[in-house]
Amino acid sequence: MGQSSAMHPKALLDVCSELVRLSLKFDHPTDAIVAKFFRDNRGLGPRERATLSGTVYNVLRKKLLFDHFAPSGSGPKERRLAILGFYGPGDFLRSALTDQEKNWLDQCEKINVADLMERHRHNLPEWLVQPLKDQLGDEFWPLAESLNLGAGLDLRVNALNAKRADVQKELAQAGIKAVNTPYSPWGLRIAGKPTLNKFDGFIKGAFEVQDEGSQLLAMLLDAKRGEMVVDFCAGAGGKTLAIGACMRSTGRLYAFDTSPHRLDALKPRLARSGLSNVHPAAIAHERDDRVKRLAGKIDRVLVDAPCSGLGTLRRNPDLKWRQSLGLVAELAVTQAAILQSAARLLKPGGRLVYATCSMLVQENEAIAQAFSEANPDFAPLEAGEVLSGLKVADAAKLCSGGETGQRYLRLWPHRHHTDGFFAAVWQRA
Ligand SMILES: C[S@@+](CC[C@H](N)C(=O)[O-])C[C@H]1O[C@@H](n2cnc3c(N)ncnc32)[C@H](O)[C@@H]1O
């Protein structure tokens, strides 16, 4: 493929159509499809890459709206979708179109979307709509809109070796405006998506990219110096790093996961962070011998369970087309099993946190309630009170459920400008 600067609009639109075609197979996560496409087409420059990924993500976000417009056009469907979702200036796009396509696009742009049927406006699969309306009522529409806007960029400052104001200063020197996140004391929110991995602060482990919601989940565990802590589903360790910093790099923090590949991705992050208390360990499954050996010995356990990921639709809009009620039901069985097994690790008086990045009751409140009923020795704590105790502003507004309405942490993109998250907290008797 030729150099980016020389790429003609017609050629770029052709490449966009091809990437849209590959993405709509839904045989892999879209971020992996896009990354492979870029590896296979090394000649693409930064601007072409931005156009390509922007176009694919637009198509995924607004798929039902574009599916409604597409039949009136001509040519391959992926090309029509790429035209509708094209991420770039209108005149640049138009210079790539035939007269027939230009007329069709003009007609589409004249349509008032507000007059269309609901499904073309919310761009969500039907199976997801009613469960969200049941929870949110009229707020369903602000949520649906926020899911199509894309996400901002949050950083977590490493409290072990850096100050938020210093990171803010380093970013400001490079012309990047970062404001304090409203709830997390470690968070900075950045406008746009600048590349950050060349910054001294990043290389030295002063900050990591992490949604403010994830930071709040790590806060709920409230791990202390010198404790024994398990991050049961640590993955690439986003929350492990935050917890390790809370512990001031003392005590012992086990990072378990069934995926050695994900734990490998934790290692360079760990090296940057300066933490020396983290022990990554791949486990075969949640009943692994390693878990049995530690039973009753641990002060705090976080279960950041594998979930549908529907709370991250701003970043991963493909999930709404790749998930289904059937898959969610299967996940709920796994979530309950992992939570039950992880709970055995706790000492009397120890704290258990169950978390997901799902917005569905089946993966959240239903799992937490079933666990509470089956385990009377685990007393639910009010997430709102825990966060207020940690001086999180407006903690009550981040929570819902239970008698006080503060039982569970419940973050929503349209209310809190985070991904959608859930967390429940218990103390072992
Ligand atoms: C939501 S992700 C974790 C994200 C991670 N905590 C972070 O903050 O970056 C869930 C993780 O659970 C892991 N997992 C799946 N089944 C598991 C099991 N039975 N026991 C432990 N981990 C499991 C997956 O490999 C995945 O990495």
Automatic annotation (TrEMBL):
<feature type="binding site">
    <location>
        <position position="304"/>
    </location>
    <ligand>
        <name>S-adenosyl-L-methionine</name>
    </ligand>
</feature>
<dbReference type="InterPro" id="IPR049560">
    <property type="entry name" value="MeTrfase_RsmB-F_NOP2_cat"/>
</dbReference>
<dbReference type="InterPro" id="IPR023267">
    <property type="entry name" value="RCMT"/>
</dbReference>
<keyword id="KW-0489">Methyltransferase</keyword>
<dbReference type="InterPro" id="IPR001678">
    <property type="entry name" value="MeTrfase_RsmB-F_NOP2_dom"/>
</dbReference>
<keyword id="KW-0694">RNA-binding</keyword>
<dbReference type="InterPro" id="IPR054728">
    <property type="entry name" value="RsmB-like_ferredoxin"/>
</dbReference>
<dbReference type="GO" id="GO:0003723">
    <property type="term" value="F:RNA binding"/>
</dbReference>
<feature type="active site" description="Nucleophile">
    <location>
        <position position="357"/>
    </location>
</feature>
<comment type="similarity">
    <text>Belongs to the class I-like SAM-binding methyltransferase superfamily. RsmB/NOP family.</text>
</comment>
<keyword id="KW-0949">S-adenosyl-L-methionine</keyword>
<dbReference type="Pfam" id="PF01189">
    <property type="entry name" value="Methyltr_RsmB-F"/>
</dbReference>
<dbReference type="GO" id="GO:0008173">
    <property type="term" value="F:RNA methyltransferase activity"/>
</dbReference>
<protein>
    <submittedName>
        <fullName>Fmu (Sun)</fullName>
    </submittedName>
</protein>
<keyword id="KW-0808">Transferase</keyword>
<feature type="binding site">
    <location>
        <position position="257"/>
    </location>
    <ligand>
        <name>S-adenosyl-L-methionine</name>
    </ligand>
</feature>
<dbReference type="InterPro" id="IPR029063">
    <property type="entry name" value="SAM-dependent_MTases_sf"/>
</dbReference>
<dbReference type="Pfam" id="PF22458">
    <property type="entry name" value="RsmF-B_ferredox"/>
</dbReference>
<feature type="domain" description="SAM-dependent MTase RsmB/NOP-type">
    <location>
        <begin position="143"/>
        <end position="429"/>
    </location>
</feature>
<dbReference type="GO" id="GO:0001510">
    <property type="term" value="P:RNA methylation"/>
</dbReference>
